Amino acid sequence: MKTSSSNTKECVWENACFTHLQCPFHTVNSLQQVVLTTSTCLNALSCSHALFHCDQVQYTLVPVTGWQDLGTAFLEHKEQVCSYFVLINCGVNVDLLETLQPEEDSIFFICDTHRPVDVVNVYNDTQIKLLIKQDDDLGVPSYDDIFRDDEGEDEDADGGDSGNESDGSSEPSGKRRRFDEAGFLFLVPVSEEICNCHPLSRTCIYRREILFDYEQYEYHGTSAAMVMFELAWVMTKDTKDMLWWSIIGLTDQWVHDKITHMKYVTDIATLQRHVSRHNHRNEDEENSLSIDCMRISFEYDLRLALYQHWSLYESICNSCYTSCSFKLWSMNGQKKLQEFLADMGLPLKQVRQKFNSMDMSIKENLREVIEESANKFGMRDIRVQTFGVHFGFKNRFLASDVVHAAASLLENVEKDESATDNFIKALDCLSRSNIERLHLGIDLAKKKLKAIQQTVASCICTNLILSQGPFLYCHLLEGTPDVKLFSKPLALTLLCKYLLKAFVFSTRNKRCKVLPLIMAAPMDVEKGTVIVLGIPPESETSDKKNFFGRAFEKAAESTSSRTLHDHFDTSNPLDFKDCMASVQNMVINY
């Protein structure tokens, strides 16, 4: 990224850490404008903003919630004098050029954690620039395996006559797509109709199978915020704020169960090295003791949501890990909780008041006391590797606190405000100059966690989770308390994972413990739409890969159901209320 006043030199964006950056931002000068389109990754957006600000690059920020928003935003801005589009956490898992139909001079930079990456985006490096770390294993099939390049075989099969003019170096024009006037020809996978009638149908079927194996599972790669931070690092423009945002981005993946434990621990170690570097660099600076200083620290902390901003009792009751371990929806679970508190030797008065009001003598060794008692009750993973931050001398937050706060502000349903307004408020809470907004988000997060816990208890106690053969199914009906909250994807994701974990702890049926869960909730009562989410079976060793996106699509096709697959996460379709039988058949035969 260089402004028009800077000298032309080799761009560090082409460093070995990243791929597909042959046309980097140093070609953008201060007189050109960039359209910055982002989904829910507020942290990567904050890092991007800092990078643009450093180089005085003008940009237009466009929040989007799905594919329709992305298409609309592109149509609104493509007529402007702008040929650069930066997509954050959206756009990588579809053929973007086919979806948006851009002009040939439009360049897209995509920093997206969704996987798998669409093969067309991978092999088209003229208009699509992927910001992906090279150590991310994408598992992309080889070019020759998925794209037709069989001119010799075609000539043999068709008697040397393909029905198109040939100069010895080209293929039938109907089998490829032209992306630029300079003659860059990009070959696309052949269609099913061609496979049925073409002499090389076996080769075509083989390629379809390769693509199916590659695309059938949805999962997540390295956090987009981490990618943007490491990009800033190679450009020597990283700051402590950007490091904190990348930590929040990784923690968001962990809170919403998007990555494996091994991936989380590996990325934590990477960020820990950066934290040590920044702390060492700033330890002698004058502002290290100022009232507005920022100090990041690596910690082994408790898996108790928001406990430093809540009472310890409320946090234990509304955290997924402890609530499921104690089975707090049952009388025996409540009794076990009381035994746990007694074993710790903490007075109920202290446990039930806000954490900040607890006696200092109790708080000094609270984590050790809780961990010791948790081990006795079978909770051996009560501690987790994470990071904390101090803003000045008063405000202290864990990374998970900020994740819960930002997600609650982003999906706030208490006020009738637009998605863009909620987005801006959630973005504001990431700034250390807007602590009040962060505390507001924490208050909303408490309400959300309470609603999730109560809904889980209700579903378990009333047997709303049904076994539908190869999967479990739960449908929240209209009139359910707080049902409006679960019309949002992130809230529904937390509820779904919490509910499946609770069901595994409560059921005696061994077969049901290894089944995935499909959950449906009303989205718009007036329109009659339903949001549906599918998650894989509960397992500590799960690879976090989700096949429901493809299953939902096939089920919708086979039943001609009214569906809208608008989410960037393909496992979240809409309006799916009349084809559950087809979903069941798809899962059985998947």
From TrEMBL:
Residues 149-176 are annotated as: Disordered. One of its GO terms (molecular function) is single-stranded DNA binding. The keyword Cell membrane does not apply. GO terms for biological process: DNA replication initiation; double-strand break repair via break-induced replication; mitotic DNA replication preinitiation complex assembly. GO terms for cellular component: DNA replication preinitiation complex. It comes from the Eukaryota. Its main location: nucleus. Pfam families: CDC45. Residues 149-159 have a biased composition (Acidic residues). Keywords: Cell cycle, DNA replication, Nucleus. It is found in: Nucleus. InterPro entries: CDC45 (IPR003874). Residues 163-172 have a biased composition (Low complexity). Belongs to the CDC45 family. This is CDC45 cell division cycle 45 homolog (S. cerevisiae). It comes from Pygocentrus nattereri. The lineage of its organism: Eukaryota, Metazoa, Chordata, Craniata, Vertebrata. The gene is CDC45.
